[in-house]
Design brief:
Helix 7 crosses helix 14, helix 10 crosses helix 13 and helix 14 packs parallel to helix 19. By secondary structure, the protein is of the alpha+beta class. About 50% of the residues lie in helices and about 10% in strands. The structure holds protoporphyrin IX containing FE (HEM).
Length: about 475
């Protein structure tokens, strides 16, 4: 008697729905199985698992209705499994808590703050180039090197903490840990009997999950303690040392994320637990998403010499023969590189699906969507629709330069509407800085031409196997 039952989808049996059809799909196969459903059932279909109805959509009009509306800000069930790790931080919280937190945190992504981060982006990108030059192996497993770069960058910008040599072992452990957490969350999600806490935490998986939480939380706690200690040592404790004097003068109230949270704690607007939630949320969201986009990006560039050369030429026009690092203004001028990054995110959106829990009945065009239904927006499938992106599998940065008019919800790697990605400008500048530096200093070659990775998705989109790229220094390179 639910209107959604008239929509297509895998066969729904009494009581269990299509749960049994989904059982036993190996973790590495799950993503491919998810991709097969839209091909069979079209742009709107329903998976019914016991009493849960999950409406899947990937057409722009539906996506706009769902994401644009201020009532649809509650995340769906799978996000609950992230709560032991991220708490009710900005990614997961809802209602007035989310509104309050978003209001507190928005100023920390203001242009003036980001402009000052460009110094860290430059330095970390140069370090990355040096590291790539000195790696003994010609075939570089990019995920690990890039993961270090993005983790170092988020820690030094938003958290004001440098991951020096002492901490590099714990940083490696942290990166592995969050990868494990992602896998464990998805394994739990696909095994309905593991959903109740009382069962899950008795199993080997639940116990491993708990052990990983301890590692992830203690890494974040160290970052908080480190920053608090530095602030007491610093004369102008409240301001990040990365900021120039002008920013310190003119925007005393604009602070880097962790400083802002500590100030909010001092003002009684947030408690210690609240700071932990946000630090865990931003450490994860602020590095893993960008690492995946950059890694898929390097893979695509290695396969498309013409695109690398255009980026190189664009950089030559901006820098001439100078070897200086890119400033904020330089990054803003890199229009072709910007189009390239958009094309990377079209083909490999770091967050391939986003979910919502419907809290009030509403009409999705001609279908009544009732309270308690879950909605899953397929960003990955939307971005590969042939009617919106001709030859959708082909990597063509030019698509984003031709001035083609597309529906505003046809390209949504950072989601859209009130719960869009708060870090999107940060991410774009960081990725521009890293990719421009790499293309200025290296020619990239694919280990295997034309190869496309098998994909899996936990919380972010990942390749099943490592991505190998060769970095061949350009002859004029002075570094
Ligand atoms: C390529 C890089 C990135 C991509 C593709 C990306 C994508 C997204 C998407 C799709 C969402 C919505 C998620 C959902 O509704 O479940 C989101 C939310 C979020 N992102 Fe990003 N993100 C990126 C980088 C970053 C960075 C660098 C930061 C922090 C510095 C960040 C922080 C967040 C936070 C805190 C949220 C939750 C916002 C809220 O609900 O109010 N992201 N991101």
């Amino acid at each position: 008697d639910n209107p959604l039952d008239s929509l297509p989808g895998p066969k729904r049996w009494p009581i269990v729905g299509c749960a049994f059809g989904l059982l036993g799909i190996p973790y590495d196969e799950l993503f491919n199985r998810m991709l097969s459903f839209p091909k069979m059932y079209g742009y709107r279909y329903v998976l019914k698992i016991f009493n849960r109805r999950i409406l899947h959509v990937y057409n722009v009009e539906d996506i706009e209705i769902i994401l644009a509306h201020s009532r649809n800000i509650t995340k769906n069930r799978p996000y609950d499994f992230l709560e032991p790790w991220l708490g009710a931080g900005l990614l997961i919280s809802t209602g007035s808590k989310w509104h309050r937190r978003r209001k507190i945190l928005t100023p920390t992504f203001h242009f003036n703050i980001l402009r000052n981060f460009s110094k860290v982006f430059e330095e970390k990108s140069r370090n990355l180039v040096r590291k790539l030059k000195n790696l003994p192996d010609k075939n570089v497993d990019v995920l690990s090197v890039i993961g270090d770069f993005t983790l170092n960058t988020i820690c030094e910008t938003a958290m004001g903490t440098q991951l020096d040599c002492d901490k590099s072992t714990s940083a490696i452990k942290y990166k592995d840990t969050i990868k494990n957490i992602g896998i464990q969350v998805i394994k739990r999600l696909t095994k309905v009997w593991l959903h109740p806490d009382i069962i899950f935490y008795q199993t080997t998986l639940g116990k491993e999950f708990n052990r990983n939480l301890v590692i992830a939380h203690s890494f974040a706690d160290n970052v908080i303690d480190d920053r608090k200690m530095k602030r007491t040592d610093q004369e102008d404790g409240a301001l990040s040392e990365n900021f120039d004097d002008k920013t310190k003068e003119s925007s005393k109230r604009r602070l880097a994320l962790l400083d802002l949270l500590i100030e909010a704690e001092n003002n009684g607007e947030i408690d210690v637990e609240g700071i932990r939630e946000e630090v865990n949320t931003f450490m994860f969201e602020g590095h893993d998403t960008t690492a995946m986009a950059l890694s898929f990006g390097l893979m695509l560039l290695a396969d498309h010499e013409d695109v690398q050369e255009r980026i190189y030429e664009e950089c030559k026009l901006i820098f001439g023969d100078s070897d200086r690092t890119p400033s904020w203004t330089d990054l803003t001028e890199m229009k072709y590189l910007e189009a390239t990054i958009k094309e990377i995110l079209r083909l490999y959106p770091s967050v391939p699906f986003i979910g919502r829990q419907i809290t009030e009945d509403f009409m999705l065009d001609d279908v009544l969507v009732k309270k308690d239904v879950e909605v899953l927006v397929h960003i990955y499938d939307l971005h590969r629709r042939a009617d919106i992106y001709p030859d959708p599998e082909v990597f063509q940065p030019q698509r984003f330069l031709n001035g083609e008019v597309r529906h505003p919800y046809a390209f949504i790697p950072f989601s859209a509407g009130p719960r869009n990605c708060i870090g999107q400008k940060f991410a774009m500048q960081e990725m521009k800085c890293a990719l421009s530096e790499i293309c200025r200093h290296f020619k990239l070659r694919a280990a295997e031409r034309g190869a496309r990775p098998r994909l899996k998705a936990d919380i972010v989109l990942r390749p099943v196997d490592p991505i190998y790229v060769q970095f061949i220094p350009r002859s004029c390179d002075k570094l």
